Amino acid sequence: MTAGGRAEGAEPDAARPASRGARVLSALFYGACSFLLVLLNKALLTTYGFPSPIVLGIGQMAATIMILYVSKLNKIIHFPDFDKKIPVKLFPLPLLYVGNHLSGLSGTSKLSLPMFTVLRKFTIPLTLLLETMVLGKQYSLGIVASVFAIILGAFIAAGSDLAFNLEGYVIVFLNDIFTAANGVYTKQKMDPKELGKYGVLFYNACFMIIPTLIISVSTGDLQQATEFNQWKNVLFVMQFLLSCFLGFLLMYSTVLCSYYNSALTTAVVGAIKNVSVAYIGMLVGGDYIFSLLNFIGLNICMAGGLRYSFLTLSSQLKPKQPVDEENTPPGFEALESGAECRLGAQGGHS
To answer: For this UniProt entry, which segments traverse the membrane (predicted)?
Structure first.
């Protein structure tokens, strides 16, 4: 039994694999947060016409810093105090983090929801490639075939997109690269004996909020946001604050899902979530232009994503699976004792 108040990463738990429940619940938590945030950001940036995705990103970083710091002060969570070695330990995560954050918000405002979610599918093969190169993982032929189905469907849908927006396509593809790299390197950096998952979240946000604010001021982005005419609209303000809170929950749930599963599983759960987002976007987004070929491509892409998800998740849930260091999270006792649930209740590169 570990001592009370002990920081995550106790040695006895380090040899203990995560349970099926921890894996599935962390994946569902991530999917729900991602789903809600995409819809909410779409409403803020498109329906209300909020001009500054950068300011929205700053709000989400600020929420992350405040929630984690208050949680640390109240001994709900643990992560190390700042020292001069932390930037070296984190690099290149802060750059990937802010690139993922801002490109995701910008892409949401440039494309219809169905096309945004289809192009985000390219995160999956990029994650697979990076996990093979950086973490040395290998995947079955069935999973690779599912990846190609996803890519095929995405190309068909994108090729017949009647609302083609080159800038939006470039931004979303950059977002795919940042998301894949951020997920893989986050998994690599989440050593509980070093920063742990909370330290990674907290210091990423701390290091990037000031440079992001400087960019916002120098480009006139902050001025556009402050002059926005909806700040007296209570409904808009509530949705803006909710987006900041959900932005923290999404970042937390992404790290949690990668912590108990893998970066690739996190990308897979995102693919499942995108099925719902894409079809809802056809009905309520207001900016989807229907064409038969585009619709066929969407469905091929979604089918490949579901097949891919089934193969990956079912292989993780097989009994008597050999213990993989990737899926052996130190500090597993923290989830069982309810520490994870308490933070999730308080407080979240699409």
So the answer is: 24-44, 50-70, 139-160, 166-186, 198-219, 231-252, 259-282, 288-310
Instruction: Give the DSSP H/E element, type plus range, for residue 110.
Output: helix 93-110
CB 108, CB 50: distance < 8 Å: no
Is residue 208 predicted with pLDDT exceeding 70? yes
The angle formed by the CA atoms of residues 106, 108 and 113, to the nearest 5 degrees, is 165
Q: How confident is the model at residue 1 (pLDDT cuts 50, 70, 90)?
A: very low
> What whole-number distance in Å separates Cα of residue 117 and Cα of residue 153?
12
Start-to-end Cα distance in the chain: 38
Structure tokens at 135: 């973490």
Tokens of 314: 């079912």
Omega before 329 within 30 of 0, i.e. cis: no
The dihedral over CA atoms of 118, 124, 125, 127, expressed in degrees to the nearest 10, equals 140
pLDDT in tens, 260-305: 777 777 776 776 666 566 666 666 655 566 777 777 877 887 787 7
| Amino acid in position 89 | K
Q: Is 161 exposed, middle or buried (0-12, 13-18, 19+ CB in 10 A)?
A: buried
Kindly report the pTM of this predicted structure.
0.62
